[in-house]
Amino acid sequence: GTARRATRTTRVMPRDAPATPSLTRDGASSCFHVTYDVDATSNAEARQIVDALCLEQTVELPEALVPPGTWINEHVVGKCVSIERCASGVDARGKGASGDVYRAKVRYADDCAGGELPQLVNVIFGNTSIKERVMVRDVELSDAMLGKFAGARFGAKGLRKLLGVERGPIVMTALKPMGTPSEKLAEMAYAFAKGGIDIIKDDHGLANQRYAPYEERVRACAAAVKRANAETGRRCIYAPCINAPAHLVVQRAKFAKAAGAGAVLMIPGITGLDSMRALAEDPDFGLPIIAHPAILGAMLGGGSQNTIRGFAHGVLLGLLPRLAGADATIFPNFGGRFGFSVEECKDIVHGARRVLAHHPSILPSPGGGMTLDKVKVMMETYGQDVLLLVGGSLYSHSSDLTANARHILTMAGRTDIYGPRESQPGSYHVPTHYSNGLFTPGSGMRPRLKLVDESSSAHSPYPLTPHGTYPAAPPSTPWTVGLDPEAVAQMSALKEKNYALESKVDELTTLVKSLMDAEAKRNGTKHASEGPLDGNHSKVLNRKKGEFQWERVPQEMYKMDGASFKECSRIELIGKRGESPVFHVRYFEVAPGGWTTLEHHQHEHVVVVLRGEGEIQLGLESYHLGVGDVGYTAPGDTHQLRCKAGTTEPFGFICVVAADRDRPIEDEPYELLKMCKMAHVLDENVRVALETQIKHRAEHKAAHGAVAQGSACEWKPGGKKKAHAAEPSACEWTPKSKQAPAKPKPTPTRYFP
Question: Coil, strand or helix: which one is 20?
Answer without folding.
Answer: coil
